[in-house]
Amino acid sequence: MSDACVKLTRHRAVSVVPIHGWRAVLFGLPFVACGAGLVIYAVAGGRSIKAPPELLVLAGCAFAVMGGLLLVHGMCGAARERRVRAAQAWQPNEPWAWDYDWDSRGIDALGARAPARWIKFCGAAALLLAPFHLAAFDAEHNALVLPLWVAICDLGLLIAAAYAARLAVQRRKFGSPRLSFGHFPFRAGEVLEVYLEGVRGLEHLDRLDCSLRFIEERYEATGHNGAYEVNSYQLYCDERSLETRMSGPVHLRFQLPRNGLATRLSDRPPRYWELALQGEAKGLDFAASFLLPIYEKA
User: What span, in angstroms and rounded, lies between the C-alpha atoms of 40 and 46?
Assistant: First the structure.
């Protein structure tokens, strides 16, 4: 058990990007405008820039897609902020009702739908790149810029496809982990009682390492061009190891501290409780993490 502040590396953050709401919308608009302008210029037959029109279309699409994703992210965030403010006014003493879309029975592991999302992404990217492959084959012999860009995009697509395949194999091997709550919500100072269900192959693990931790995300400057990144800091941790040669759900109990650390997933950057599970196995290791509805006593 530790209350030391520790920066976590390679931690899956809740925040996708360090910009939200209308600021994300305003930040994304120039990218959409720039991308649309490049595409229109290339389609209209502009030749003042020494670059193949196919490359201009590819660059324009990349800018437009990036800006479009920021627009969608910002508008969804702004709508969520309005809903949270309205619910806060209506239920100020029940933060679990508006802080996150909780299911009182339990929660799936973070990234439970990631394999399907990555497969869809790879399919969409392959369709988007298809016309540029044709254009690269038809390009002049001295026009190497477009084939080079297509090759770089293909490399990124292969990496994404390999990651999607890894997630799919991990899902097939270990199933779909789910954490059932002993009661809902949990309060500071109480006993956290949960049950791990839906997992296959735990009996093949030597042990299951469990970490109950409180995470605070921070948006910190990278020191380059004024850019920011999302970093995760562990403010509290309680660790233990379990024997896994058992059948049925795995029962976990933790004594929660009375230090006022409460889940605030609606904040940006968020603060939240997380249960991380890790076990070594032949081939792919087992790993799963779950958000927890732990709030202060009324």
Answer: 9
What's the token pair of residue 250? 């795995």
Q: In what order do the strands lie in the sheet with 271-279?
A: 6-8, 228-242, 208-221, 271-279, 286-292
DSSP state of 249: P
The full length of the chain comes to 298
DSSP bridge pairs for 278: 209, 287
Averaged pLDDT in 10-residue chunks for the chain of 298 residues: 83 84 86 84 66 71 84 87 88 91 92 71 75 65 64 83 80 86 93 90 81 94 77 93 72 89 92 92 84 90
Q: How far is CA 241 from CA 204, 250, 261, in A?
A: 15, 12, 24
In whole angstroms, give the CA distance from residue 216 to residue 237: 12
pTM greater than the 0.70 cutoff: yes
Classify residue 2 by its DSSP letter: B
* Phi/psi at 33 (5° precision): -65, -45
Residues 143/56, Cβ–Cβ less than 8 Å: no
Q: Where are the alpha helices (DSSP H) in the chain?
A: 21-43, 53-90, 114-138, 145-174
| pLDDT of amino acid 74 | 86
Whole-number Å distance between alpha carbons of 183 and 254: 13
C-alpha span between 132 and 143 (Å, rounded) = 13
Query: Could you give the CA distance from residue 86 to residue 84 in angstroms, rounded to a whole number?
Result: 5
- Write the CB contacts of 209 (distance below 8 Å, at least 6 apart in sequence): 239, 240, 241, 277, 278, 279
